[in-house]
């Protein structure tokens, strides 16, 4: 599959429709999703990071992984993950462009074995957002700006009670979005546009 960038621009209005689709995002459907359990609701937003190959940005690897088209011979690391069946609802590229793989009303396969407070299986009630990046490298200003815009749009549609990192729901297995992610900056960007108070942003990560 030829790699294509999204066309979402800073001036595009983000609106989540009833099915959980943001039309301003580039739509790249992933087969790796299913129905949420009845009455599960959506109450959690999980921030992840991903780069394929690890530490490299801008290529087609992430899209190929989420659409089950990753060539195991394309890179030594790919042989380990090509058979994985994973996805996220959204990916934010380094330039701030936005891709949607799964409608929010559906369950994307992003969290794996996970727990938030007294609830397990976070995929059942969470929306997953991947940032193109690594734990150690600073994220781009355009990514923070898009993540804040996306967050505000999701808060308008869903009763999200907490926003966390992948490390907060799977601390033994995962470390993302890592120490490079500036939770304080993210909070300020979201709060600056009049969203509700910050207690719902409850990552255990150290605020920089």
Give me the secondary-structure topology.
Elements: E1 26-27, E2 33-35, E3 44-50, H1 61-66, H2 78-81, E4 90-92, E5 98-100, E6 106-108, E7 115-116, E8 119-120, E9 126-132, H3 141-157, E10 162-165, H4 166-169, H5 183-191
Helix pairs in contact: 3-5
Strand order of the largest sheet: 1-5-4-9-3-10
Counted up, domains total: 1
User: What's the CATH topology label?
Assistant: Lysozyme-like
Report the CATH C-level class. Alpha Beta
Considering the protein shown, what is the CATH homologous superfamily? Peptidoglycan recognition protein-like
Mean pLDDT: 90
Overall SS class: alpha/beta
How many β-strand runs? 10
User: Per the principal axes of the C-alpha atoms, what is the gross shape?
Assistant: globular
The fraction of residues assigned to DSSP E strands is 15-25%
Largest sheet: 6 strands, mixed
Uncertain residue ranges = 1-11
Order of helices and strands: EEEHHEEEEEEHEHH
The number of helices is 5
Can you walk through the features of this model?
- The protein has a single domain, classed as 3-Layer(aba) Sandwich (Lysozyme-like), CATH 3.40.80.10.
- It has 5 helices and 10 strands.
- The chain has helices at 61-66, 78-81, 141-157, 166-169, 183-191, and strands at residues 26-27, 33-35, 44-50, 90-92, 98-100, 106-108, 115-116, 119-120, 126-132, 162-165.
- Strand 4 and strand 5 (98-100) form a beta hairpin.
- The protein is globular and about 45 Å long.
- The protein starts with 25 loop residues before the first strand and ends in a 17-residue tail after the last helix.
């Amino acid at each position: 599959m030829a790699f294509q960038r999204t066309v979402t621009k800073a001036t595009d209005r983000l609106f989540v429709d009833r099915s959980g689709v943001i039309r301003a995002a580039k739509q790249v459907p992933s087969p790796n999703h299913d129905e949420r359990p009845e009455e599960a609701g959506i109450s959690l937003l999980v921030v992840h990071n991903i780069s394929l190959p690890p530490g490299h940005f801008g290529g087609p690897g992430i899209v190929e992984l989420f659409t089950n088209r990753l060539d195991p011979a394309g890179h030594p690391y790919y042989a380990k993950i090509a058979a994985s069946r994973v996805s996220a609802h959204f990916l934010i590229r380094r330039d701030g462009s936005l891709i949607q793989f799964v409608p929010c009303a559906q369950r994307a396969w992003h969290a794996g074995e996970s727990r938030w407070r007294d609830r397990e299986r976070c995929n059942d009630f969470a929306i997953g957002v991947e940032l193109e990046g690594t734990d150690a490298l600073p994220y781009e200003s355009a990514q923070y700006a898009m993540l804040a815009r996306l967050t505000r749009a999701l808060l308008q549609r869903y009763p999200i009670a907490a926003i966390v990192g992948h490390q907060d729901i799977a601390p033994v297995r995962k470390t993302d979005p890592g120490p490079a992610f500036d939770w304080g900056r993210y909070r300020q960007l979201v709060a600056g546009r009049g969203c509700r108070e910050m207690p719902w942003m409850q990552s255990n990560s150290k605020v920089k």
